[in-house]
Design goal:
By secondary structure, the protein is mostly helical. The protein is globular. 21% of the residues are buried. Helix 8 runs antiparallel to helix 11, helix 8 runs antiparallel to helix 12 and helix 10 runs antiparallel to helix 11. The longest helix is centred in the middle third of the chain and has 41 residues. The termini are far apart.
Amino acid sequence: MPATLSSTKTRAALRSSARISLELLLVLLMIAVVLWALGRTWSVTWPVIVALLLTTLTWPPARFLRRRGWRPALAASVVTVLFLIVAAGIVVLIAVPVASQSGELTKGVVDGIQQLREWAAGPPLNIGDAQFAKGLDTAVARIQGSVGGIVNAAVTGVGTVLNGVVTTVLALFLMFFFLKDGPRFLPWLARQLPGRFATDVPAVATRGWDTLGAFVRSQAFVGLLDAVLIGLGLWIIGVPLVLPLAVLTFVAAFVPIVGAFFAGFVAVLIALVSNGLTDALIVLAIIVVVQQLEGNVFQPMVQSRGLGLHAAVVLLAVTLGGSLAGIVGSLLAVPAAALVAVLWDYLREQLAEPGREPEAGRPDREPEAGEPDREPEAGEPDREPEAGEPGSGSAPA
């Protein structure tokens, strides 16, 4: 006879499911409110996030100076100035060689356009100068007809640049204060929080800080690997401006997707105008191969090892972050996922039952020296008899 369902157990299961669903909805509602509040205060939140990421890069030298007896303000000032010098040096390293070879690059662009016109004039396109001029006039007319849109885009671009400058300046000031007063923040925060929050929040914040440091270090390592591989390929082919292009590749690695696309586009363009179409295609193939290795092999492996996340989780986090918030979402997806994992691990540790029974066949820990490496069978003592006990083979002292 088929077993019948118990009405009591069914009602209990439904009540439990309804209660759990309601609790999950409340948690999701709280998360949505937090995200909404972050969005409303993004003009302040974004500089803080940038400052925290920069601080993870500059904190090791600041900590070194503080341990050598330097005052916090002096150590933070020196490290901030050195960071600005390094950033300015990177800009100069990219700009000076480009400016010195700008004449050659301009001539290469003009020659490339002329070659394109000559190729278009032959078969199979057979586009003559009159058709080319007509197409150029049509393009100019369309540009003139959309002057308003271009002006609006330019104004928006100028506003974006100004916002970027303000964010950068504010982030640098915040970085200085984080370097100077960072170690005093958690003790101060613990004094402001009641009860268990005074212990839990600083503990989670410390683990989160270590996770952010691991993320920035792994991203820098992946960017350095990209710069070396692509720079080596450009040097073998004979493309000019190898060092600026390598530096640009390293810097662009900190901006997912768009950064790699921009650095690759610049490299292919310079190869096209200086070495020709064949070398440009070879450079494009090198960049595609390196970027595929970086995105699908190196970055997931390095970040999964440093952040404690599986490689598949890293890929899914980047995809989800990019679909939700574009470039910023792609940049913050991996550290956000790592911070969620840190919080979840801490909650599991705090909610675990201290005296839970181990699963069958899976002891909670490895046996230490002197402990039996298996469960005692029936009739066997749980431990070896000590001196003076029955079966010890020795008499008490």
